Amino acid sequence: MVGTAHGPVRAVLADETSTWRHAGIGIRCTPPSMPESWASAVIALRLASAREPVVDAADVGALLPLAVAADASTLGMPDVVALSDLVATHPGGEVLLDAITATDSLRAAGVEAGLHHSTVQARAEQYSDALGFDIRSPRGRVRLSLALAMHRLATSRFD
Prior knowledge:
mainly alpha, two-stranded antiparallel sheet, two-stranded parallel sheet, 8 helices, 4 strands, 8% strand, globular
């Protein structure tokens, strides 16, 4: 176990990830770059969710440097604050919001979240009002995706 600012994490050097139920995979590298790989693996682990329990830092793309910048920032992010408030007051809300960002339609999000599409439509409107932006629009989905990622980065604990 290796101590991190987010709690203890088990570090493993491995080529195969199929046996892991919850994992962050660091950027592949040569031995001199292991500290950067480790840092990327911890970020990937912090971004993992019930929907995506194993995250490979190589698949995170531009979110990786944004995560590093967010960790270094002391600015409160209004979208993240609003999302945190929404998640705290709506059990199951994070699961639905995650499904909305990961699917092509609200109907598909409903299937993934196990909700009727009319329920998803109503909640999408309610959640949009609570967040202060329309999560049904393309720009709103991008904002929601970033807010969810930043929320996970801010709230992930491993202890």
